[in-house]
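Sample intake sheet
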Amino acid sequence: MANTNTAAALYGLTAQTINANAETALTQVVNGTATPILLSVPANWNLDGKQFKVHLIGKATGGTSATLILKIYAGTVAAGTNIAAFTVSGSAIPATGGNFAVDTTLSWDSTSGLLNGTHGGQINNTLTTNAANTQATGITSVSGLTFSASATFGAALSTNTVTVSEFSLEQV
């Protein structure tokens, strides 16, 4: 949830229809064009050796067999490292909808260039397993700390939508 420690955020994005069962980058509409969501750590934000969080909160609609997997990437969905995959075994998002609130707590330092952390949360009131993130490497400056997100439904349905209400970076 956004607070005075929030350094970058996107709020209230439009619903995105995902009529596929393939991983799809979550997007925002800018000047009439859908572009992948991307958060960048501000250059003056001192995170070297400190903890911070990335939050992904929203709602989704689905249907029969429409399980939902959310992922947060260090970098872009197309060329980054999938650091946190939020999976819920057997939990479908109904056509009437459900919500999600997932986050990852991260630590990074410029000496090692490593981004480490843990992730957890809930999708449609089912807990995702708390787990260690996949380590991202080679990040030697704050400017390399960017984050994106994706969604994958278990079935290709015209009723599959994801609406991101918050995608944010917060210093702990």
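Comment: The radius of gyration is 16 Å. The longest strand covers residues 50-61.
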